[in-house]
């Protein structure tokens, strides 16, 4: 209790050592360089106005370059800085959600019986791991502009710049054996023109599908894959999954 001219007031006296305390030089949280912060924001806005996709990684790399360029070698484009930058400038990720996914219950009803069938076949026929293979084809799009980008909140239109080829694709057949051996990729291209051998990278097989616009897997391309890929690596009785 402290006596105050006829009355008492509760409180704690400040120690002299506390009054003399000062922040050490270079200590405490670093202030925000507003010029660089605004430059990063301006860079983001320019790219979005042009319809260019901006990822979090790209923005952090640009901010890191700007800080290093201005002599701030200690700056780290951390996740914490990125979160606060978005919060300061009212920025968020915008993405499309038109792709529906199947529920786990639907896939489990198909996967479990299939796995039991493969295990039963291997046990009955005594297949070795090198005699069991798996193959599937996957589309490879000529252009993949991405589905999300950093954008200012409240924007009604989120544009993505592209060259107009985002619907064009080729097909790649990938396969591997159960022992871990990866077989050569089998690339399906549209058209009938012969390809110069020097233009084909080593380690892959290329097949022209005949159609000028389609490169889908069908009975003919599967037969080619069996002859060029599957038949070259497996010579005994085998199981193709």
TrEMBL record:
The keyword DNA-binding applies. Pfam families: HTH_Tnp_Tc5. SMART domains: CENPB. InterPro entries: CenT-Element_Derived, Homeodomain-like_sf, HTH_CenpB_DNA-bd_dom. GO terms for molecular function: DNA binding. Residues 11-24 have a biased composition (Basic residues). Residues 1-30 are annotated as: Disordered. GO terms for cellular component: nucleus. Residues 24-95 form the HTH CENPB-type domain. This is HTH CENPB-type domain-containing protein. The keyword Cytoplasm does not apply. Keywords: DNA-binding.
């Amino acid at each position: 209790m402290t006596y105050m001219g006829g009355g008492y007031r509760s409180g704690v006296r400040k120690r002299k050592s506390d009054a003399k305390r000062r922040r050490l030089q270079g200590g405490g949280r670093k202030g925000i360089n507003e010029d660089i912060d605004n430059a990063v924001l301006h860079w983001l806005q320019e790219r979005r106005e042009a319809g260019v996709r901006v990822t979090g990684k790209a923005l952090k790399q640009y901010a890191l370059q700007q800080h290093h360029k201005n002599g701030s070698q200690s700056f780290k484009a951390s996740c914490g800085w990125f979160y606060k930058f978005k919060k300061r400038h009212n920025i968020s990720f915008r993405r499309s959600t038109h792709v529906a996914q199947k529920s786990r219950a639907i896939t489990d009803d198909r996967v479990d019986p299939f796995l039991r069938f493969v295990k039963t076949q291997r046990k009955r026929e005594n297949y070795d791991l090198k005699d069991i293979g798996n193959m599937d084809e996957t589309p490879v799009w000529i252009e993949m502009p991405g589905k999300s980008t950093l954008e200012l909140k409240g924007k009604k239109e989120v544009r993505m710049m592209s060259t107009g080829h985002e619907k064009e694709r080729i097909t790649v057949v990938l396969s591997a054996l159960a022992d871990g051996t990866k077989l050569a990729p089998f690339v399906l291209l549209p058209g009938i023109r012969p390809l110069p051998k020097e233009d084909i990278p080593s380690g892959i097989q290329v097949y022209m599908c005949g159609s000028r616009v389609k490169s889908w897997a069908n009975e003919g391309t599967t037969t080619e894959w069996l002859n060029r890929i599957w038949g070259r690596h497996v010579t005994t009785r085998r199981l193709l999954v």
